[in-house]
Amino acid sequence: MDLEAQFNQEMLGIYHNAGRQIGYWAKRYLQKVRQSGGLQAAKDWLKPKSQSTSGLQRLAENNRLDLSVEALVLREPWSTLFTREELQVAQQRINLVSSYRLSEEVSGETHLLEGATCQVMINSYERNLEARRRCVEHHGLSCCICNFNFGEKYGAVAEGYIHVHHLKALSEIRQEYEVDPIADLRPVCANCHAVIHLSGKTRTIEEVKSILQNKLGNQN
Ligand SMILES: [Zn+2]
Ligand SMILES: [Zn+2]
User: Which ligand is nearest to the CA of 105?
Assistant: First the structure.
């Protein structure tokens, strides 16, 4: 079996695994793979404009990003079937979703909605992922406190990764609250984000900036 045929098997394999293991039967995905073949389907999904984040979201909610097309194409030997641009799109999408999952706002959000129906949580999660994307589109991928940029520092593997800090305290937020991605969210690096929330406080962006400035000033 040649590599392309093997890849096709893998594409069908992730469909079955997602269905069996987390109950996510992605019918449209299966249709597309059957129609176009695994390789072409993956290439279509990896076009920069292609909107394929809903499947990724679902997998991320279950901590199973390993079952995504994006993760599959990045693995050897399948990565050899794709262009640099396609692999970059895959990496950026994974980083976008994983950085959202890793920032503490997620656990805060889950906590906030504890006892609420699952549906509310999923809707809220989807809105927030979109909000996050728009925040980054407007404010950029560099930390708004120290200017750190993951892609510049670590290269392609971290391209597109950044935490997003919510300016409003979660305790002030009600379930029906609609996030304004530009006014309410800021991109921050993991270090500055930690300092914002250190010892259970929520410092303002300006406070952490001035802490950093004073520290730098003392060193001279
Ligand atoms: Zn920073
Ligand atoms: Zn935060």
Answer: 2
Domain holding 30, by residue range, is 3-99
Whole-number Å distance, alpha carbon 188 to ligand 2 midpoint, is 8
CB neighbours (10 Å) of residue 155? 9
Distance between Cα 63 and ligand 1 center (Å): 26
Q: Give pLDDT, residue 208.
A: 95
**Ligand at shortest distance from the CA of 189:** 1
Residue 109 lies in a domain: no
Question: Which residue has better confidence, 9 or 173?
Answer: 9
Separation of 146 CA from ligand 1 center, angstroms? 4
Report how far residue 56's alpha carbon sits from residue 54's, in angstroms, rounded to the nearest whole number. Answer: 5
pLDDT recorded at residue 166: 82
Distance, in Å, from the CA atom of 147 to the CA atom of 16, rounded to the nearest integer, reads 43
Which of 99, 121, 148 corresponds to the end of one domain? Answer: 99
What average pLDDT does the structure give for the chain? Answer: 81
